[in-house]
Write a structure and sequence with these properties.
Distance between the termini: 13 Å
CATH architecture of the largest domain: Alpha-Beta Barrel
Shape: globular
Structural class: alpha/beta
Radius of gyration: 21 Å
CATH topology of the largest domain: TIM Barrel
Helix content: 25-40%
Number of domains: 2
Bound molecules: N-(iminomethyl)-L-glutamic acid, fe (iii) ion
CATH class of the largest domain: Alpha Beta
Number of helices: 15
């Protein structure tokens, strides 16, 4: 199955040599071919160029993209798509003035979702979750990280992992599973947190690792959840099974989790709504990418990640949805790209870099995803007609997408 797209108004994120991350000032540069074509065969990008250089190519499907933009699919490097039910009642509590912490303290929050997930059958959980994933794909996401973390028991975490595995097998999208081993402290361990850490490090992680579904470990490093010492114990337990950290840090408080993540060679540190100069210093010279989640800031009214500080320090930045029932019940990367411009003060070029190549880097897959490069996977977005790619973030809350191609298949 081959597809030829011709007369593309702007073909975005084109790299002849394989770029795997863009940092600092380089994020302002988004390579574009005006009036372009792209040819894909099976799941691979084979050829592209200017229409004036186009020589006829036989293809099973030809798409005339006159007036439209073509770009790599969004790479959403931070989601909790697998969950049960919703938390609409907490949404109303928050409107009425309660904070995230106050809601969690009265039995809401992650514990609420964990209870629901534990009571949901594996099949039901799969059906609820794949439906959400398919919505994300229709909104342009072609590679999606999915975390566990609403299990809180070995049994329920393994159930989540098996559901993610099934999604990975059945979906055309690229799925990257992460074991969010330590997301919250269950009620029965409230006064004996150390016993829960022991349970996670000695039972949950070893059993989860045996399934061989994930290469990443996550921890919610935060006041009232897991402190620096707890986080380090969990990262060290993960390391024994070759699980690389991708961690939740600095969402509400600065505990030193960024330096800890860098010390343990984290692939990504995510959230960073709170950020100080020591954090920036720790990130410099590391292979760790920062991930901002503006949908979470929007939904629970907390500060936005100071992304300018990160990029202006020469560092790379990715953006992701954080799609979850508590702090970001939306998996729309188009909104995230727009919010990154409006609220994080990224230019459209920086935001598109953050949502494509750098999102792929934050999942460890940027050698095969995130740019239009010969040999990379054919995950593409074809937009509706527009004058310029800046309209994608500009026309916020509009749906810019006309068609998506995932793994070489036109949906
Ligand atoms: O990324 N902060 C930790 N985890 C999620 C929220 C989880 C929840 O409230 O269900 C987040 O915001
Ligand atoms: Fe999250």
């Amino acid at each position: 199955m081959s597809i030829l797209i011709t007369n593309i108004k702007q073909l975005l994120q084109v790299h002849d040599s394989n770029v795997t991350i863009v940092k600092g000032d380089a994020m302002k540069n988004l390579p574009v071919i005006e009036n372009a074509y792209v040819y894909i065969d099976h799941d691979t990008i084979i050829e592209y160029g200017k229409m004036e250089d186009y020589r006829p190519i036989e293809a099973d499907t030809v798409i005339d993209a006159t007036g439209k933009i073509v770009l790599p699919s969004w790479c959403d490097s931070h989601t909790h798509v697998v969950y049960a039910g919703d938390r609409t009642s907490e949404f109303v509590d928050r409107i009425n003035g309660l904070s995230y912490a106050e809601i969690a303290n009265k039995g809401g929050g992650i514990l609420n979702s964990a209870k629901k997930l534990q009571d949901t059958s594996e099949d039901d959980l799969f059906e609820q979750s794949i439906k959400r994933l398919n919505e994300l794909i229709a909104m342009g996401s072609g590679a999606v990280e999915i975390k566990t973390g609403y299990g809180l028991t070995t049994e329920a975490e393994l159930k989540m992992l098996r559901v993610i595995k099934r999604i990975k097998q059945e979906s055309l999208a690229k799925i990257i599973p992460t074991l969010l081993a330590a997301h919250a402290i269950p009620e029965e361990f409230k006064s004996k947190k150390q016993d829960y850490i022991k349970y996670i490090t000695e039972e949950l992680i070893p059993q989860a690792a045996k399934l061989n579904i994930t290469h990443y470990v996550d921890v919610f490093c935060e006041e009232g959840y897991f402190d620096i010492k707890d986080t380090e114990a969990i990262l060290e337990a993960g390391k024994k099974y070759n699980l690389r950290p991708k961690i939740h840090v600095n969402q509400f408080n600065i505990l030193g989790g960024i330096a800890l993540g860098v010390k343990h060679n984290a692939l990504s540190v995510d959230h960073l709504e709170e950020l100080n100069d020591d954090d920036i210093k720790a990130l410099k010279g590391s292979d760790t990418i920062s991930v901002a989640l503006p949908g979470c800031s929007y939904f629970i009214s907390i500060p936005y990640t100071p992304a300018r500080k990160i990029i202006d320090a020469g560092l790379p930045l990715a953006i992701a949805t954080d799609y979850n029932p508590g702090t970001a019940p939306s998996g729309n990367m188009n909104f995230v790209v727009s919010a990154a411009c409006v609220k994080l003060k990224l230019t459209p070029e920086e935001a598109i870099n953050a949502a494509t190549i750098n999102g792929a880097y934050a999942m460890g897959i940027s050698n095969m995803y995130g740019s239009i490069t010969r040999g990379k996977k054919a995950n593409l977005i074809i937009t509706k007609p527009m004058n310029h790619y800046s309209e994608i973030p500009y026309a916020f809350a509009h749906d810019p997408i006309e068609q998506v191609i995932i793994n070489g298949q036109l949906l």
